[in-house]
Specification:
The protein is of the alpha/beta class and 371 residues long. It is 40% helix and 20% strand.
Amino acid sequence: MTDHLKRSRRVVVKVGSSLLVDGDKGTLRGQWLQALVEDIAGLREQGKEVLVVSSGAIALGRRVLGLGAGALRLEQSQAAAAAGQIRLSAAWAEALGKHELKTAQILLTLGDTESRRHYLNARETANTLLGLGVVPVVNENDTVATAEIRFGDNDRLAARVAQMISADSLILLSDIDGLYTADPGVDPAAKFIPEVKAITPEIEAMAGVSRSGLGRGGMITKILAAKIAVGAGCAMVIANGKKQHPIRQLAETGHCTWFRASGSPATARKQWIAGHLNAQGSIAIDAGAAQALKRGRSLLPAGVTAVHGRFQRGDAVQVVDAGGLLVAQGLSAYSDEDARRIIGHKSNEIAAILGYAGRDEMIHRDDLVLR
């Protein structure tokens, strides 16, 4: 499966607090970070797009604020995150800058990934940054998250982000080297599992996942993350991050646990779009646009003749021809109100009509499935 990493075009790397921050001192492991960034620079030289999901803000901030050891109250965690996040982002910017790599910070909460508008905005921001050659650094927005809406771990946050940007591979760098049949710290007979082709109840039992599917930390959250990732067509790997140059070590030794994805991110996304049973509206198109869609093109406003129903940006809509026959289904880049205003117009006229520069396409081909 290391060949899969070589073939991956878009990679998400998740870094845990225990790797990035010295637990006793509460300070950044600068040398380790530099080695990891060298690995990331190597991935970029191979033409890969890389996004980082980084923990560590609270761990850094609690030392700055003089908060002692032990559990923190929610408001203390939020304060520590506020103090630590600025230092964490500065550390990433400095380390990446030494390799002439630009970075940008994206803060997310669970609500952002479940709210349609926030999700779309976050996805477009991340995709734009990646397209510009930037290495975005994502973290959970602990300063505003509450106990009810927090992810509780960055493993699942990383998986949600990988799903959001249609990543090919998700690398979870951890203080363990992969999945075992049992806890190797308790059972010396525990056997290492190099590859998981399907997440079965037996696999879940090895991690100690409860029947409710709830849990915090450890292997439990990694299995839950794997479910999200592989379901989105993204292969996931758990690898030992404690050593210097962990990604290079992964590529050279192959010692890790891979969770195989069924299909590609593009295939999974198309299946998800096709599975929308409750389209919010419909868009009628002319014969020329219908032929263009069959050739794999996007749907442009110029080929649209009518808009029916009420829908928002990102909603599923049906695409019908002049005779009312279903041609395709996809996710609209515009609300029904804005879509009606740009019907029949060229893409370069959209900004003048709407007052903002939206997408050139009414429905992008990546968001469209022929029926």
